[in-house]
């Protein structure tokens, strides 16, 4: 809305920009309420072994189910929460929900698998991320090998000291650390030398020209071999076709994640998938 000394010019009113601005403000103003009212929930995306296709884990991915805006995906709120340095509030809510879900599965005897959690690089600045996670798993009495920490490669470009210390502490406590989005843009191969990761998640961009660009297969195979040489396991993200899955199994990428095996789903739908035999759980405590 442009106010001019001769009046208000409605022609300058850009409805799209206006709506976007309001949604952005809404997210910032409602993060606390969203956490309290349970609008923020983890959805779980299956991770399978590439050889047997058995379910070996899940990644927790945040969804914001809003009374006004409906179903929101990370692209709608993560960049805004990071910009306003509020992302840790959402992350803590997701960590706690995951711990609760794991606890209730253990209590009821339902099968379950390890869950990986996404950490924003800002989590390491905005809170003592290691203590926060460790207190939650202690509170809910969740075994530490059932929680994996995902750090995205873009986190490694700043805050090196805090991040390195945090990673050492995670490892000492018994949490595995996964490097997310490897190869998506920021990483130099140095990060593989300077940090200790247990699993390297190969970014789905590597699969984007799988059928058309013959180099993409060679590159994926080389990354898997390199990871193996430096003592890391591999997972490829964004697997959508049987041909991709077969290739990744042949070159020795141990874990696969992607729409071919399942989209992120509410915990009850994962349980249904296990009950109906869609998924066989390969590491379960009953
Ligand atoms: P990410 O951690 O790399 O997660 C993988 C993303 O790829 C997810 O998007 C997932 O739904 C999507 N995906 C999985 N398989 C396929 C596939 O076969 N094809 C395609 N096209 N996409 C696939 P999502 O859930 O929208 O999350 C986007 C990003 O937002 C995540 O990328 C992660 O960086 C961030 N994120 C999600 N949840 C959280 C959270 O709780 N905390 C923080 N800090 N970041 C989160
Ligand atoms: Mg991730
Ligand atoms: Mg990723
Ligand atoms: Mg990604």
UniProtKB/TrEMBL annotation:
Gene Ontology molecular functions: cyclic-guanylate-specific phosphodiesterase activity
Chain ranges of the EAL domain: 24-278
Record's keyword terms, sorted: Membrane, Transmembrane, Transmembrane helix
Protein name from the UniProt record: Diguanylate cyclase (GGDEF)-like protein
Taxonomic placement: Bacteria, Bacillati, Mycoplasmatota, Mollicutes, Anaeroplasmatales
Part of the whole protein covered: 450 to 735 of 735
């Amino acid at each position: 809305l442009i106010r001019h000394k001769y009046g208000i010019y409605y022609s300058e009113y850009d409805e799209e920009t206006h709506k976007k601005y309001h949604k952005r403000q809404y997210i910032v103003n409602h993060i606390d309420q969203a956490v309290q009212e349970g609008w923020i929930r983890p959805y779980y995306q299956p991770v399978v072994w590439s050889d047997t296709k058995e379910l070996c884990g899940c990644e927790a991915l945040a969804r914001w189910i809003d009374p006004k805006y409906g179903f929101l995906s990370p692209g709608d709120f993560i960049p805004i929460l990071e910009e306003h340095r509020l992302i840790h509030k959402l992350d803590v809510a997701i960590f706690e929900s995951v711990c609760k879900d794991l606890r209730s599965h253990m209590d009821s005897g339902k099968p379950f698998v390890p869950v990986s959690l996404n950490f924003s690089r800002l989590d390491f600045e905005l809170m003592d991320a290691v203590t926060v996670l460790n207190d939650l798993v202690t509170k809910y009495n969740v075994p530490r090998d059932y929680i994996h920490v995902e750090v995205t490669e873009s986190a490694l470009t700043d805050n090196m000291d805090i991040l390195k210390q945090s990673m050492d502490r995670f490892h000492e406590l018994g949490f595995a650390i996964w490097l997310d989005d490897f190869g998506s843009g920021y990483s130099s191969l140095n990060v593989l030398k300077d940090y200790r990761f247990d699993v390297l998640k190969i970014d789905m961009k590597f699969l984007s020209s799988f059928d058309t660009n013959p180099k993409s297969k060679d590159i994926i195979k080389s990354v898997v071999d390199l990871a193996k040489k430096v003592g890391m396991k591999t997972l490829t993200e964004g697997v959508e076709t049987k041909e991709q899955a077969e290739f990744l199994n042949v070159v020795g990428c141990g874990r696969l994640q992607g729409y071919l095996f399942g989209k992120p789903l509410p915990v009850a739908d994962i349980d249904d998938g296990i009950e109906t035999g869609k998924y066989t759980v390969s590491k379960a405590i009953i």
